Protein backbone atom coordinates (compact mmCIF):
# COMPACT_ATOMS: atom_id res chain seq x y z
CA UNK A 1 0.00 0.00 0.00
CA UNK A 2 1.74 3.06 -1.29
CA UNK A 3 0.72 6.36 0.28
CA UNK A 4 0.05 8.52 -2.76
CA UNK A 5 -2.55 6.33 -4.40
CA UNK A 6 -3.23 6.52 -8.12
CA UNK A 7 -0.11 8.26 -9.37
CA UNK A 8 2.13 5.76 -7.61
CA UNK A 9 0.06 2.86 -8.85
CA UNK A 10 0.54 4.04 -12.43
CA UNK A 11 4.25 4.24 -11.81
CA UNK A 12 4.28 0.59 -10.76
CA UNK A 13 2.42 -0.86 -13.76
CA UNK A 14 4.93 -1.00 -16.59
CA UNK A 15 5.52 -4.25 -18.52
CA UNK A 16 7.79 -5.65 -15.86
CA UNK A 17 5.01 -5.65 -13.35
CA UNK A 18 2.55 -7.25 -15.77
CA UNK A 19 5.07 -9.99 -16.44
CA UNK A 20 5.57 -10.59 -12.75
CA UNK A 21 1.81 -10.82 -12.28
CA UNK A 22 1.46 -13.28 -15.16
CA UNK A 23 4.19 -15.35 -13.62
CA UNK A 24 2.53 -15.35 -10.21
CA UNK A 25 -0.70 -16.39 -11.89
CA UNK A 26 1.06 -19.21 -13.74
CA UNK A 27 2.73 -20.36 -10.53
CA UNK A 28 -0.60 -20.41 -8.72
CA UNK A 29 -2.23 -22.54 -11.40
CA UNK A 30 0.82 -24.78 -11.64
CA UNK A 31 0.70 -25.65 -7.97
CA UNK A 32 -2.82 -27.12 -8.42
CA UNK A 33 -2.25 -28.68 -11.84
CA UNK A 34 -1.44 -32.19 -10.62
CA UNK A 35 -4.47 -32.32 -8.35
CA UNK A 36 -6.68 -31.11 -11.21
CA UNK A 37 -5.17 -33.71 -13.57
CA UNK A 38 -4.15 -31.05 -16.05
CA UNK A 39 -0.97 -32.78 -17.20
CA UNK A 40 -0.75 -35.31 -19.99
CA UNK A 41 1.99 -36.98 -21.96
CA UNK A 42 2.44 -37.03 -25.71
CA UNK A 43 4.70 -39.47 -27.49
CA UNK A 44 7.03 -38.62 -30.35
CA UNK A 45 8.00 -41.67 -32.41
CA UNK A 46 11.70 -42.52 -32.62
CA UNK A 47 12.71 -44.32 -35.81
CA UNK A 48 15.48 -46.88 -36.19
CA UNK A 49 17.53 -45.66 -39.17
CA UNK A 50 18.65 -49.08 -40.40
CA UNK A 51 15.28 -50.85 -40.33
CA UNK A 52 13.02 -47.84 -40.76
CA UNK A 53 10.85 -49.23 -37.96
CA UNK A 54 9.44 -47.44 -34.95
CA UNK A 55 11.82 -48.14 -32.08
CA UNK A 56 9.76 -46.37 -29.44
CA UNK A 57 8.90 -42.86 -28.36
CA UNK A 58 10.00 -39.92 -26.27
CA UNK A 59 7.35 -38.93 -23.73
CA UNK A 60 6.84 -35.16 -23.59
CA UNK A 61 4.87 -33.31 -20.96
CA UNK A 62 1.82 -31.19 -21.81
CA UNK A 63 -0.11 -28.84 -19.55
CA UNK A 64 -3.67 -27.76 -20.33
CA UNK A 65 -4.90 -25.31 -17.73
CA UNK A 66 -8.63 -24.65 -17.50
CA UNK A 67 -8.16 -20.85 -17.40
CA UNK A 68 -4.89 -20.16 -19.17
CA UNK A 69 -5.14 -22.90 -21.82
CA UNK A 70 -2.17 -24.84 -23.18
CA UNK A 71 1.20 -23.82 -21.75
CA UNK A 72 4.37 -25.14 -23.39
CA UNK A 73 6.98 -27.08 -21.41
CA UNK A 74 9.66 -24.54 -22.28
CA UNK A 75 7.54 -22.07 -20.27
CA UNK A 76 6.39 -24.12 -17.32
CA UNK A 77 9.19 -26.66 -16.72
CA UNK A 78 11.72 -23.99 -15.63
CA UNK A 79 9.05 -22.47 -13.36
CA UNK A 80 8.14 -25.88 -11.95
CA UNK A 81 11.84 -26.42 -11.24
CA UNK A 82 12.10 -23.18 -9.27
CA UNK A 83 8.95 -23.97 -7.32
CA UNK A 84 10.05 -27.50 -6.52
CA UNK A 85 6.91 -28.69 -8.32
CA UNK A 86 9.02 -30.63 -10.80
CA UNK A 87 9.55 -33.33 -8.17
CA UNK A 88 5.90 -34.43 -7.81
CA UNK A 89 5.29 -33.81 -11.52
CA UNK A 90 8.31 -35.92 -12.37
CA UNK A 91 7.16 -38.74 -10.12
CA UNK A 92 3.74 -38.67 -11.77
CA UNK A 93 5.09 -38.72 -15.30
CA UNK A 94 7.54 -41.50 -14.64
CA UNK A 95 4.67 -43.72 -13.51
CA UNK A 96 2.38 -42.64 -16.33
CA UNK A 97 4.99 -43.17 -19.05
CA UNK A 98 5.99 -46.62 -17.74
CA UNK A 99 2.34 -47.74 -17.54
CA UNK A 100 1.68 -46.54 -21.07
CA UNK A 101 4.81 -48.21 -22.47
CA UNK A 102 4.02 -51.46 -20.66
CA UNK A 103 0.71 -51.44 -22.57
CA UNK A 104 2.52 -51.28 -25.92
CA UNK A 105 3.26 -54.99 -25.40
CA UNK A 106 -0.32 -55.66 -26.44
CA UNK A 107 0.34 -54.16 -29.87
CA UNK A 108 2.45 -57.26 -30.56
CA UNK A 109 4.72 -55.29 -32.85
CA UNK A 110 7.95 -56.02 -31.07
CA UNK A 111 9.34 -54.25 -28.02
CA UNK A 112 8.89 -50.49 -28.02
CA UNK A 113 11.06 -48.25 -25.86
CA UNK A 114 10.02 -45.14 -23.99
CA UNK A 115 12.28 -42.20 -23.12
CA UNK A 116 11.41 -39.75 -20.37
CA UNK A 117 12.97 -36.38 -19.53
CA UNK A 118 14.22 -35.72 -16.05
CA UNK A 119 15.33 -32.31 -14.87
CA UNK A 120 18.60 -31.65 -13.10
CA UNK A 121 16.80 -30.90 -9.88
CA UNK A 122 14.93 -34.20 -10.02
CA UNK A 123 18.20 -36.10 -10.26
CA UNK A 124 19.98 -34.03 -7.63
CA UNK A 125 17.21 -33.73 -5.04
CA UNK A 126 15.36 -37.03 -5.17
CA UNK A 127 16.23 -40.67 -4.95
CA UNK A 128 15.63 -40.93 -8.69
CA UNK A 129 16.91 -44.52 -8.88
CA UNK A 130 14.34 -45.60 -6.30
CA UNK A 131 11.57 -43.77 -8.21
CA UNK A 132 12.60 -45.55 -11.39
CA UNK A 133 12.70 -48.91 -9.61
CA UNK A 134 9.21 -48.37 -8.18
CA UNK A 135 7.76 -47.22 -11.51
CA UNK A 136 9.20 -50.25 -13.30
CA UNK A 137 7.94 -52.64 -10.61
CA UNK A 138 4.47 -51.10 -10.52
CA UNK A 139 4.05 -51.02 -14.32
CA UNK A 140 5.78 -54.28 -15.14
CA UNK A 141 7.73 -52.51 -17.89
CA UNK A 142 10.98 -54.31 -18.76
CA UNK A 143 13.85 -52.08 -17.55
CA UNK A 144 15.70 -52.24 -20.87
CA UNK A 145 12.69 -50.52 -22.50
CA UNK A 146 13.15 -47.38 -20.39
CA UNK A 147 15.55 -44.56 -21.20
CA UNK A 148 16.10 -41.64 -18.85
CA UNK A 149 17.13 -38.46 -20.66
CA UNK A 150 19.33 -36.10 -18.70
CA UNK A 151 20.70 -32.74 -19.74
CA UNK A 152 24.26 -32.06 -20.66
CA UNK A 153 24.36 -29.31 -18.03
CA UNK A 154 23.60 -31.88 -15.32
CA UNK A 155 26.78 -33.72 -16.28
CA UNK A 156 28.73 -30.47 -16.27
CA UNK A 157 27.55 -29.39 -12.83
CA UNK A 158 27.34 -32.70 -10.97
CA UNK A 159 29.84 -34.98 -9.39
CA UNK A 160 30.22 -38.54 -8.21
CA UNK A 161 26.97 -38.58 -6.26
CA UNK A 162 24.83 -37.97 -9.35
CA UNK A 163 26.95 -40.37 -11.39
CA UNK A 164 26.28 -43.04 -8.76
CA UNK A 165 22.51 -42.46 -8.98
CA UNK A 166 22.61 -42.82 -12.73
CA UNK A 167 24.74 -45.93 -12.41
CA UNK A 168 22.09 -47.50 -10.18
CA UNK A 169 19.46 -46.85 -12.86
CA UNK A 170 21.74 -48.41 -15.40
CA UNK A 171 22.42 -51.39 -13.15
CA UNK A 172 18.68 -52.15 -13.24
CA UNK A 173 18.96 -52.46 -17.01
CA UNK A 174 17.50 -49.08 -18.02
CA UNK A 175 19.42 -46.65 -20.22
CA UNK A 176 20.75 -43.12 -19.78
CA UNK A 177 20.70 -40.61 -22.64
CA UNK A 178 22.28 -37.17 -22.77
CA UNK A 179 19.79 -34.71 -24.28
CA UNK A 180 20.66 -31.71 -26.47
CA UNK A 181 24.21 -32.97 -26.74
CA UNK A 182 26.70 -30.47 -28.11
CA UNK A 183 25.14 -27.37 -26.58
CA UNK A 184 26.75 -27.55 -23.15
CA UNK A 185 30.38 -28.28 -23.99
CA UNK A 186 30.62 -31.44 -21.91
CA UNK A 187 34.20 -32.52 -22.29
CA UNK A 188 35.31 -36.00 -23.18
CA UNK A 189 36.55 -36.65 -19.67
CA UNK A 190 33.20 -35.65 -18.14
CA UNK A 191 31.38 -37.95 -20.50
CA UNK A 192 33.67 -40.83 -19.61
CA UNK A 193 32.91 -40.42 -15.90
CA UNK A 194 29.17 -40.67 -16.41
CA UNK A 195 27.27 -43.86 -17.16
CA UNK A 196 25.79 -42.88 -20.52
CA UNK A 197 24.37 -45.12 -23.27
CA UNK A 198 22.91 -42.65 -25.76
CA UNK A 199 23.78 -39.19 -27.13
CA UNK A 200 20.99 -37.07 -28.58
CA UNK A 201 22.32 -34.52 -31.05
CA UNK A 202 20.68 -31.17 -30.39
CA UNK A 203 18.17 -30.19 -33.04
CA UNK A 204 19.87 -26.84 -33.72
CA UNK A 205 22.79 -28.74 -35.27
CA UNK A 206 20.48 -30.90 -37.34
CA UNK A 207 18.62 -27.80 -38.53
CA UNK A 208 21.82 -26.31 -39.97
CA UNK A 209 23.58 -29.53 -41.03
CA UNK A 210 23.04 -28.98 -44.75
CA UNK A 211 23.84 -25.27 -44.84
CA UNK A 212 26.59 -24.86 -42.28
CA UNK A 213 29.78 -26.94 -42.70
CA UNK A 214 30.66 -26.37 -39.03
CA UNK A 215 27.40 -27.97 -37.91
CA UNK A 216 27.90 -30.82 -40.37
CA UNK A 217 31.37 -31.53 -38.97
CA UNK A 218 30.07 -31.26 -35.42
CA UNK A 219 27.42 -33.88 -36.11
CA UNK A 220 30.02 -36.19 -37.64
CA UNK A 221 32.20 -35.68 -34.59
CA UNK A 222 29.37 -36.44 -32.15
CA UNK A 223 28.44 -39.63 -34.01
CA UNK A 224 32.09 -40.68 -34.07
CA UNK A 225 32.50 -39.85 -30.38
CA UNK A 226 29.36 -41.72 -29.39
CA UNK A 227 30.23 -44.81 -31.36
CA UNK A 228 33.81 -44.88 -30.12
CA UNK A 229 32.43 -44.88 -26.56
CA UNK A 230 29.99 -47.66 -27.49
CA UNK A 231 26.96 -45.38 -27.36
CA UNK A 232 23.97 -45.05 -29.66
CA UNK A 233 23.39 -41.68 -31.30
CA UNK A 234 19.99 -40.08 -31.91
CA UNK A 235 19.37 -37.22 -34.35
CA UNK A 236 16.65 -34.87 -33.08
CA UNK A 237 14.47 -32.35 -34.88
CA UNK A 238 14.70 -34.05 -38.29
CA UNK A 239 12.32 -32.10 -40.51
CA UNK A 240 13.46 -32.95 -44.06
CA UNK A 241 14.43 -35.98 -46.11
CA UNK A 242 17.81 -34.36 -46.80
CA UNK A 243 18.53 -34.13 -43.06
CA UNK A 244 17.47 -37.75 -42.63
CA UNK A 245 19.78 -38.89 -45.45
CA UNK A 246 22.64 -36.80 -44.06
CA UNK A 247 22.31 -38.49 -40.66
CA UNK A 248 21.80 -41.97 -42.11
CA UNK A 249 24.91 -41.71 -44.28
CA UNK A 250 26.95 -40.79 -41.22
CA UNK A 251 25.77 -43.77 -39.20
CA UNK A 252 23.27 -42.11 -36.87
CA UNK A 253 21.31 -44.89 -35.14
CA UNK A 254 17.91 -43.32 -34.42
CA UNK A 255 16.02 -40.26 -35.62
CA UNK A 256 13.02 -38.29 -34.49
CA UNK A 257 11.36 -35.16 -35.76
CA UNK A 258 8.45 -33.66 -37.67
CA UNK A 259 9.66 -35.44 -40.83
CA UNK A 260 8.28 -38.63 -39.27
CA UNK A 261 5.78 -37.38 -36.72
CA UNK A 262 5.12 -34.65 -34.17
CA UNK A 263 4.52 -35.77 -30.58
CA UNK A 264 1.20 -37.67 -30.50
CA UNK A 265 -1.48 -38.37 -27.93
CA UNK A 266 -1.19 -41.93 -26.58
CA UNK A 267 -3.92 -43.44 -28.78
CA UNK A 268 -2.58 -41.67 -31.88
CA UNK A 269 0.89 -43.04 -31.16
CA UNK A 270 -0.52 -46.58 -31.08
CA UNK A 271 -2.17 -45.97 -34.46
CA UNK A 272 1.09 -44.59 -35.83
CA UNK A 273 2.93 -47.75 -34.78
CA UNK A 274 0.32 -50.01 -36.34
CA UNK A 275 0.59 -48.09 -39.61
CA UNK A 276 4.38 -48.40 -39.71
CA UNK A 277 5.07 -52.06 -39.04
P1 LIG B 1 13.54 -31.83 -25.64
O1 LIG B 1 13.66 -32.89 -24.61
O2 LIG B 1 14.73 -31.51 -26.47
O3 LIG B 1 12.30 -32.28 -26.53
C1 LIG B 1 12.24 -32.17 -27.90
C2 LIG B 1 11.43 -30.96 -28.31
O4 LIG B 1 11.55 -30.78 -29.72
C3 LIG B 1 9.93 -31.15 -28.05
O5 LIG B 1 9.39 -29.88 -27.72
C4 LIG B 1 9.42 -31.58 -29.42
O6 LIG B 1 8.06 -31.32 -29.61
C5 LIG B 1 10.28 -30.74 -30.33
N1 LIG B 1 10.42 -31.29 -31.66
C6 LIG B 1 10.26 -32.57 -32.04
N2 LIG B 1 10.48 -32.72 -33.35
C7 LIG B 1 10.81 -31.51 -33.82
C8 LIG B 1 11.17 -31.02 -35.14
O7 LIG B 1 11.26 -31.75 -36.14
N3 LIG B 1 11.47 -29.70 -35.24
C9 LIG B 1 11.40 -28.86 -34.18
N4 LIG B 1 11.69 -27.56 -34.38
N5 LIG B 1 11.07 -29.28 -32.94
C10 LIG B 1 10.79 -30.59 -32.76
P2 LIG B 1 8.48 -29.72 -26.42
O8 LIG B 1 7.58 -30.90 -26.29
O9 LIG B 1 7.89 -28.35 -26.52
O10 LIG B 1 9.50 -29.78 -25.24
C11 LIG B 1 10.44 -28.77 -25.05
C12 LIG B 1 11.38 -29.10 -23.93
O11 LIG B 1 10.69 -29.13 -22.68
C13 LIG B 1 12.00 -30.49 -24.05
O12 LIG B 1 13.05 -30.46 -24.94
C14 LIG B 1 12.44 -30.72 -22.61
O13 LIG B 1 13.64 -30.06 -22.36
C15 LIG B 1 11.31 -30.07 -21.83
N6 LIG B 1 10.36 -31.12 -21.42
C16 LIG B 1 9.34 -31.64 -22.13
N7 LIG B 1 8.72 -32.63 -21.44
C17 LIG B 1 9.39 -32.73 -20.26
C18 LIG B 1 9.26 -33.59 -19.11
O14 LIG B 1 8.42 -34.49 -19.04
N8 LIG B 1 10.14 -33.37 -18.07
C19 LIG B 1 11.11 -32.43 -18.12
N9 LIG B 1 11.93 -32.31 -17.09
N10 LIG B 1 11.27 -31.63 -19.21
C20 LIG B 1 10.43 -31.78 -20.25
CA1 LIG C 1 14.42 -34.91 -24.47
CA1 LIG D 1 16.53 -32.63 -27.01
CA1 LIG E 1 15.67 -29.18 -25.19
From TrEMBL:
Protein name: Signal transduction protein
Lineage of the organism: Bacteria, Pseudomonadati, Pseudomonadota, Alphaproteobacteria, Rhodospirillales
UniProt organism field: Magnetospirillum moscoviense
First-to-last residue of the parent protein present: 299 to 575 of 575
Domain EAL: 23-277
